[in-house]
Amino acid sequence: MIDEEKELTVLPLYSPVSGLLKPLEKLKDPVFSQKIVGDGIAIVPCDSRIYSPCDGYAAYIHEARHAMFIKTAYDFDVLLHVGIDTLELKGRGFDLHVRQDEKIRRGQLLWEVDLAVLKSEGKPSDVIICIPGFEGLKTVDLIAVGRKVEAVNDMILRCVFKREAGKYA
User: Fold this and answer.
1) Quick check: pTM over 0.85?
2) To which CATH superfamily is domain 4-162 assigned?
3) Contact 144, 21 (CB under 8 A)
4) Active centre residues (catalytic)
5) Is the pLDDT of residue 104 over 50?
C-alpha cells in the first residue's frame, strides 16, 4: 500500500505585501474572481513594497511591469499581479527591482509600486497571488481570509502537490 502522505510535497507561500487578505471572489475582475487563471488570494496593500513569496526565479515579467511569474524549485509557477486593469498604465507607477530570469529568494524585494498613481487612475491596488493550472497540484489551502498580514513573515497559501518519481528530491 502506498502511503499517499509520503507522495505529497508542500510549498508554503508567504505574503508578498503587508495588508488585509481578500478572497479572489471579491475582486472586480472575472479572470481572477472566477479563478480562470488559478486559485489564490488577494491582499489589499498598506505598503508599496512587494516581496517574493517563495524561492525561484523570475520566469516572466510583463512589459507593463504589473505582473510576473515566479517559477518555483518544484517546477510550477506562482503569478503575482499588482492591481486590476493596471496593464493600461503601461508601466507607470511600477519600479521593478528584479530582471526576467533572475534567481530570487523568498523575501527579496521585487517591486515598489506608487499606490498614488493607481489611485489617481482609479485602479484597485489589490496584490494578487495565484497558482495557474499545474497538473500535479492537489490543493491550494488558504491560511486565513480577512485578516491583516505582514509581508514576508505570514504564510498565506499552502500548495500541496503530488511528487513525481525522481523529481523534487
Assistant:
1) yes
2) Glucose Permease (Domain IIA) (2.70.70.10)
3) yes
4) 81
5) yes
